C-alpha cells in the first residue's frame, strides 16, 4: 500500500470482527470512507451500531481486524450519552469542550453555536435544568464549534425535534462539502447527499 | 491543566456541598468519638492522633468516590479521552482540584481538633504538617481506585478496599510523627519519608489513574 | 385571628405589615442591646471568682438561648409549610437557618473564649457543649439542603421535613445530659447548676436576652422581606410598591 | 412487601460487592485503629465500644447512600410511586433488605472485634445485643436522609450531615449499655430505651422516607 | 357537574398553568380526553411536553389548575428514563413491573410480551448488557403485559428502530380500540387513528 493510496480515504477498515456476550455482531467487515462522504451504519436495535462506532472512535478495543485512519485522528464523538455536564451552563459546557479539543474559541463563537441549535436564551442555564432535547442540542452545538475533520455520531437525533434535525442536517452537508468525514447511525430516514450505507445484521 | 482545575473548582462551587461536605464529615467523625469513648481528657489526647488521621483518611476516601463518576456517567469522560488535551494533564488537574477542596481544607481545620482533643502545641503543628504532606498522597492514591472502579458501579466501598492498604504506610508514619512531636522528640526523619512518598506518588499515581480510566471506558 | 394568620401567610400583606413593624423592631433592638451592653460592661459587678471575664456571659448566654429558640421557630415554620403549604413559611424557614447557625456559632465561640480562663481549656466534651455543637450541625444540614436548589418548592418541603424530624433531637439532646454524666463521672465541669447570681448581674442579662430575641426577629423579618422580593420580583405588586 | 425484599436481595446478590463491601469497610475502619492508636490492650479495650459503634454507624451511612439512588436514576422509582403497590410497603421492604445485608451482618461480626479489642464476654454479648437493636434504627433513620437527598446528586456525605445528629442518642445509649455490661452493671434500662426508639422509628421513619421520595420525584 | 358527565371522558384538565425557572410553559390549558382517544402533545424541545405529562401522571406538582381523572388512576408511565434496572434480566424487570402494578402474571405472559418486542433471545440477559434500543424495548414490553387503562408515554420511540415502532403502534391501536386512553409525546410522525393534537409553544 502506498502513501498515496492512503491519502484517498480517511478511514480504512479491514476484516473487522467483534463479538459480545458470545454473539457475533459482525464478521470480516471491510470498508473504507473517503473525504466528503458520510457512512451510515444501519441495523436493528442491538445489531452492533454503537459497538462499531465506539471501535472506530477508539473507545472499544475488544475486536479483531484493522482500523486505519489516514491522519492523526481526534474524532468528534457524540454517543447515546450526550457528554453534557448537568452542573455547567450551556456556555461553560461548550467552552470546556473546545478546551479539551485543544481549540481556543471566543465567546461569540460559542454564542453562535448555541444560536444555531436555537438555544439563544439558554446560554447561562445549567444543563441539568434543561429538557432532554435541549441537553441533546447542547451536545450537538459542538458540531458548530469544533473543527475536527472526523465526526462519529451515534443516533444524534434522539430526542431532537424536527426543526433541530433540519438544522444539524444542514451543518452535516456543509461539513461533507468541506471534505469532512462522518460516520453515523440513526433510525430516522435522514436525507443526505453522498451517503454510503452499511447494514449490520 | 489550569483549565481543568478551573472547571473542576467551578463544578465544586456549583454544589457548595462538595466543599462543605468533606469538612462537615471530617468534623462529624471526629466529634463522634468523644461520644463513643467518653470525654476524659487523658484518653482523648492519647487517641487524638489516631482519630484525626483515621478521619482524614475516611474523608478523603469518600470524597474521592465522586471524582470521575459524574464525568463518566454523563459521557464527558469519553470526550476528554478523545480530545487533544492530554489525559494525563487532565488527571493532574482533577487531582489537584480535588485536593484543594478536600485535603487542604482538612489540613487547615486540623489544629482546631488538636485543641479540642487537648493536644499540645508541638503536636498540633506536627499534625498540620503531616496532613499537609500526606493528604495529597491520599488523593493521588485514591484517584487510582476511583478510576479503576468506574464502570463497576460499586461506589466508594470498593475503592476503600483497594486503596486503604496503600494508605497504611502513610497512616503509620503520620501517627508516629505526631506522637514524636507530642513528647518533644525530633521528627525530621518522618517528614522526609512523607515527602518522599508524596514525590513518588505524584510521579506515578496519575499514570496508573490514566490507565484505569482508559480501561474503565473500553468496557 | 385566623384571618390575620392567613393574611400574614401571603407575601404581599406580610410585606406591607412588616414594613411598618420593622422600624419599631429595629429601634427596640438598638435600645435593648445598647442599654444591655453598657450596663453589662460598665456597671454590672465582676464575679468574685472569675473576675472581669464573667462579662462574656452577657453575650454567651443570650446567644445560646436564642440559638435554641431559633431552631424551634425554624422547625415550626417547617411544619406549617408541610401542612398548609404556605409559601412564606418556606421562606421563613430558609431565612431563620443562617441566623440560627450564626447565633450557635457565637455561643460556641464565646463559650470557648470563656472556657480558656475559667476551665483552662478551649473545649471540653461536656454534654451541653456537645449538644450545642450538634445543634450547629443540624442548622448546617438545613442550610445545605435548602441551598441545593433555590426557590424550588420540592427542596423546600424536603428541608421542612428534615427540620421537623430534627426537632426530635432537641429534647433528646437535653436528656443526654443525664445519660452522659451517669456514664462518665470523669468530667469535672458541670454547667447544669445555675450560678446563684446577684440581681445586679441578673438584670442586665435579662435585658441582653430580650435584645438578642429582638435582634433575631429583626434580622429574620428583614431577610424574609428580601427573599420575598427575590422570589416575586416579577409580580405586579412588587413593581407597584417599588415604583411608588 | 415480600416481593420488594426478594427483589432487593436479588439485586444485592447480583453485585456481591454490595454485601461484601459494607463488611469489608466495617472491618477496615476498625482495624485502622490499632494502627492509629497503638496496640496497648488497656487503651484498646477502653475505646472498643466507641470504635465499634462509630464503625457501625459509618458503615450504615455509606451503604444507605445507594439505597434509592439506582432506582431513582433508571426511572424505576417513578414506576414504583405510580404503581398500585403501596409506596410505604415498598419502603419497608427496601429498608428491611438493606438491613439484612448491612446491619445484620455487622451485628453478626461484632463479637469477633470484641475479642480483638480484649472485651470480656459480657461486653461482647451486650455489644451484639445493642447493635441488633440499634442497626435497624440506623437504617430507618438513614433512609430518610437517602430519600431527601435523592435528586440532589450530593452523595453520601450530605446524608451523613443530615442523619448523624439523629444517630447520636442511639450511639450514646449503645455505648453506655456496653460500658455498663463490661463492668458488670445492669443494663435492662438501656435495652428498653433502644427497643423503644426502634419501635418509634419503625412506625414513623418510613412515613418521612415516603414523603421524601415523593418530594424528590416531583422535582 | 354530574357523575354522568364525568363518565364520558377519562381525563379533564382545566386552566392548567405551569412555569419553570421563571418561564411560562403553558397558561390556562383546558382540554379533555375521552376513552378510545389518543392525545398527542406536540411542541419543540423545551416546550414543556415532559412537564405536562408528568403533571398528568401525578409526578410533578408545581402547577396551578385542575387535573381530574374519572377513575382511580394508576397510569402506565414511560418517560425519558425507561425504568429498566440494569442489574435485572428482561424477565425479572417485567415480573417486577407487574408486581408493583398489583398484577399477578405468568411466565408465559412475560415471554409473550418480550416476544412482541422481538427480545425472545434476551429474556435472561441482564438489561445492563443490552443496547440502548433493547433497553427501551424492555420498557415498552410493559405495554404488552400490564392492564392499565391509562397510558402516558413520553417519547416512547427514542432509540427504537422502525420495526419496533411499528409493533408498538399496533399495540396502541388495539389499546385505543378497547377503550383505553393514551397521552403521549413524540417528535416522530406516528400514523394513528383517533388522535387529538395539543401543541405547546
Ligand atoms: C464552647 C463552650 C460552651 C458552649 C457551647 C456553651 C453552651 C451553652 C448553652 C447552649 C447555654 C444555654 C443553656 C440554656 O438553654 O439555658 C449556656 C448557658 C450558660 N453557659 Fe455556656 N457554653 C460554653 C462555655 C461556657 C463557659 C466556659 C461558661 C462559664 C464557666 C459557661 C457558662 C454558662 C452559663 C452561666 C450559662 C447560663 C446557664 C443557665 O442559665 O442555665 N458556658 N451555655
Ligand atoms: N429540572 C428542571 N429544572 C428547571 N427547569 C427545567 C427542568 N427541566 C426542564 N426545565 C425547563 O422546563 C422547560 C420544559 O421542559 P420539558 O422537559 O417539559 O420539555 P419537553 O417539551 O419535554 O422537551 P423535550 O422535547 O426536549 O423533551 C424547559 O424549557 C426547561 O428549560
Ligand atoms: N455492556 C454490554 N455488555 C455486553 N453486551 C453488550 C453490552 N452492550 C451491548 N451489548 C450487546 O451487544 C450488541 C450490540 O449492542 P450495540 O449497543 O452496539 O447495539 P446498537 O446497534 O447500537 O443498538 P441500538 O440501536 O439499540 O442502539 C447487543 O446485542 C447487546 O446485547
Ligand atoms: Mg446504539
Ligand atoms: Mg421531554
UniProtKB/TrEMBL annotation, chains A, E:
Gene3D superfamilies: P-loop containing nucleotide triphosphate hydrolases (3.40.50.300). Pfam families: ABC_tran. Keywords: ATP-binding, Cytochrome c-type biogenesis, Membrane, Nucleotide-binding, Translocase, Transport. One of its GO terms (biological process) is cytochrome complex assembly. The keyword rRNA processing does not apply. Signal peptide: none annotated. GO terms for molecular function: ATP binding; ATP hydrolysis activity; transmembrane transporter activity. Residues 11-200 form the ABC transporter domain. PANTHER family: ABC TRANSPORTER I FAMILY MEMBER 1. This is Cytochrome c biogenesis heme-transporting ATPase CcmA.
UniProtKB/TrEMBL annotation, chains B, D:
Keywords: Cell inner membrane, Cell membrane, Cytochrome c-type biogenesis, Membrane, Transmembrane, Transmembrane helix, Transport. Pfam families: CcmB. The chain crosses the membrane at residues 20-41, 47-68, 89-118, 124-150, 157-178, 190-213. GO terms for biological process: cytochrome c biosynthetic process; cytochrome complex assembly. InterPro entries: Cyt_c_biogenesis_CcmB (IPR003544), Cyt_c_CcmB_bac (IPR026031). It is a multi-pass membrane protein. One of its GO terms (molecular function) is heme transmembrane transporter activity. Required for the export of heme to the periplasm for the biogenesis of c-type cytochromes. Belongs to the CcmB/CycW/HelB family. This is Heme exporter protein B. It comes from OM182 bacterium. The gene is ccmB.
TrEMBL record, chain C:
InterPro entries: Cyt_c_assembly, Cyt_c_biogenesis_CcmC, Cyt_c_biogenesis_CcsA/CcmC. GO terms for molecular function: heme binding; heme transmembrane transporter activity. The keyword Transport applies. It is a multi-pass membrane protein. It is found in: Cell inner membrane; Membrane. The chain crosses the membrane at residues 21-44, 64-84, 91-115, 127-148, 160-181, 201-224. Keywords: Cell inner membrane, Cell membrane, Cytochrome c-type biogenesis, Membrane, Transmembrane, Transmembrane helix, Transport. GO terms for cellular component: plasma membrane. One of its GO terms (biological process) is cytochrome complex assembly. Its main location: membrane. Pfam families: Cytochrom_C_asm. It comes from the Bacteria. Required for the export of heme to the periplasm for the biogenesis of c-type cytochromes. Belongs to the CcmC/CycZ/HelC family. This is Heme exporter protein C. It comes from OM182 bacterium. The gene is ccmC.
Amino acid at each position: 500500500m502506498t502513501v498515496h493510496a492512503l491519502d484517498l480515504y480517511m478511514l480504512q477498515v479491514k476484516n473487522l470482527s467483534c463479538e459480545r456476550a458470545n454473539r457475533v455482531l459482525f464478521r470480516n467487515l471491510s470498508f473504507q470512507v473517503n473525504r466528503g462522504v458520510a457512512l451510515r451504519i444501519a441495523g436493528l436495535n442491538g445489531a452492533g451500531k454503537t459497538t462499531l462506532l465506539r471501535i472506530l472512535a477508539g473507545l472499544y478495543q475488544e475486536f479483531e481486524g484493522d482500523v486505519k485512519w489516514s491522519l492523526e485522528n481526534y474524532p468528534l464523538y457524540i454517543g447515546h450519552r450526550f457528554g453534557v455536564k448537568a452542573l455547567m451552563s450551556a456556555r461553560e459546557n461548550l467552552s470546556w469542550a473546545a478546551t479539551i479539543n485543544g481549540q481556543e474559541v471566543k465567546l461569540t463563537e460559542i454564542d453562535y453555536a448555541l444560536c444555531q441549535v436555537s438555544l439563544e436564551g439558554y446560554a447561562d442555564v445549567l444543563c441539568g435544568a434543561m429538557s432532554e432535547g435541549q441537553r441533546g442540542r447542547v451536545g450537538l452545538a459542538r458540531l458548530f464549534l469544533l473543527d475536527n475533520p472526523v465526526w462519529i455520531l451515534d443516533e444524534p437525533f434522539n430526542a431532537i425535534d424536527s426543526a433541530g434535525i433540519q438544522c444539524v442536517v444542514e451543518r452535516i452537508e456543509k461539513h461533507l462539502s468541506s471534505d469532512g468525514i462522518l460516520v453515523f447511525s440513526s433510525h430516522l430516514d435522514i436525507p443526505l447527499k453522498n451517503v454510503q450505507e452499511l447494514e449490520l445484521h | 491543566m489550569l483549565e481543568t482545575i478551573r472547571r473542576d473548582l467551578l463544578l465544586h462551587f456549583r454544589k457548595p456541598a462538595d466543599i462543605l461536605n468533606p469538612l462537615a464529615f471530617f468534623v462529624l467523625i471526629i466529634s463522634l468519638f468523644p461520644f463513643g469513648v467518653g470525654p476524659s481528657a487523658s484518653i482523648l489526647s492519647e487517641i487524638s492522633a489516631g482519630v484525626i488521621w483515621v478521619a482524614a483518611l475516611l474523608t478523603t476516601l469518600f470524597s474521592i468516590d465522586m471524582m470521575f463518576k459524574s464525568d463518566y456517567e454523563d459521557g464527558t469522560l469519553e470526550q476528554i479521552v478523545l480530545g487533544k488535551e492530554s489525559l494525563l494533564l487532565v488527571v493532574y488537574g482533577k487531582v489537584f482540584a480535588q485536593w484543594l477542596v478536600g485535603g487542604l481544607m482538612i489540613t487547615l481545620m486540623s489544629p482546631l481538633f488538636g485543641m479540642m482533643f487537648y493536644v499540645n502545641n508541638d503536636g498540633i503543628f506536627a499534625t498540620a504538617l503531616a496532613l499537609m504532606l500526606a493528604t495529597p498522597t491520599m488523593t493521588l492514591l485514591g484517584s487510582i481506585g476511583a478510576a479503576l472502579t468506574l464502570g463497576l458501579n460499586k461506589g466508594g466501598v470498593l475503592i476503600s478496599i483497594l486503596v486503604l492498604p496503600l494508605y497504611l504506610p502513610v497512616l503509620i508514619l503520620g501517627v508516629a510523627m505526631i506522637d514524636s512531636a507530642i513528647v518533644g522528640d525530633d521528627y525530621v526523619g518522618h517528614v522526609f519519608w512523607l515527602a518522599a512518598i508524596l514525590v513518588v506518588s505524584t510521579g506515578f499515581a496519575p499514570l496508573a489513574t490514566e490507565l484505569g480510566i482508559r480501561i474503565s471506558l473500553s468496557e | 385571628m385566623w384571618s390575620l394568620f392567613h393574611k400574614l401567610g401571603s407575601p404581599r400583606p406580610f410585606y406591607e405589615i412588616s414594613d411598618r413593624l420593622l422600624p419599631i423592631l429595629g429601634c427596640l433592638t438598638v435600645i435593648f442591646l445598647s442599654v444591655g451592653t453598657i450596663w453589662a460592661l460598665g456597671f454590672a459587678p465582676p464575679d468574685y471568682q472569675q473576675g472581669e471575664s464573667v462579662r462574656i456571659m452577657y453575650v454567651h448566654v443570650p446567644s445560646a438561648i436564642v440559638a435554641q429558640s431559633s431552631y424551634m421557630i425554624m422547625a415550626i415554620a417547617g411544619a406549617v409549610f408541610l401542612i398548609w403549604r404556605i409559601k412564606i413559611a418556606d421562606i421563613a424557614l430558609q431565612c431563620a437557618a443562617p441566623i440560627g447557625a450564626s447565633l450557635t456559632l457565637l455561643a460556641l465561640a464565646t463559650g470557648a473564649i470563656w472556657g480558656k480562663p475559667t476551665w483552662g481549656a478551649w473545649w471540653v466534651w461536656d454534654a451541653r457543649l456537645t449538644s450545642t455543637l450538634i445543634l450547629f450541625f443540624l442548622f448546617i444540614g438545613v442550610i445545605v439542603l435548602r441551598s441545593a436548589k433555590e426557590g424550588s418548592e420540592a427542596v423546600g418541603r424536603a428541608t421542612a421535613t428534615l427540620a421537623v424530624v430534627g426537632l426530635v433531637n432537641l429534647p433528646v439532646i437535653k436528656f443526654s445530659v443525664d445519660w452522659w454524666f451517669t456514664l462518665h463521672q470523669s468530667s469535672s465541669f458541670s454547667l447544669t447548676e445555675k450560678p446563684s447570681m446577684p440581681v445586679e448581674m441578673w438584670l442586665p442579662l435579662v435585658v441582653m436576652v430580650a435584645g438578642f430575641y429582638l435582634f433575631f426577629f429583626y434580622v429574620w423579618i428583614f431577610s424574609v422581606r428580601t427573599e420575598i422580593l427575590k422570589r416575586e420580583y416579577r409580580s405586579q405588586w412588587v413593581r407597584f410598591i417599588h415604583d411608588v
